[in-house]
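Input/output pair, single chain:
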Amino acid sequence: MLRPRIPINPLPTGIITPPARPAPTADVEPRHDSSPTAAGHHSPTVPPRTTIQLTPGSAVALAAGGGAVVLVVGAVLVSMLLAVAVTGVSVAVIAIVLRLLVKDMHKH
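Output:
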């Protein structure tokens, strides 16, 4: 059930078969247009693209938002680096203290 169904082509011919279209039923009548575009050239209707108008106020807001994102990401990265540095220094101090304690125990 969960296996992918991959079509098997025993002889790779390079010919691509178009998908089968269902036959029209008796209820559906074909549409006949008398317009000049229906006779020969059929141009598909494409919805118009929406344009984004950038006003000076929105450009300033966009720049300020980008600057805020950069500052927040920078602050997070610096705080993570600082946390790693503090952890490393504390581990080094603990290692020195333990080394001194072990060395002091061997003398006595």
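The longest helix spans residues 56-107. DSSP finds two helices and no strands in the chain.
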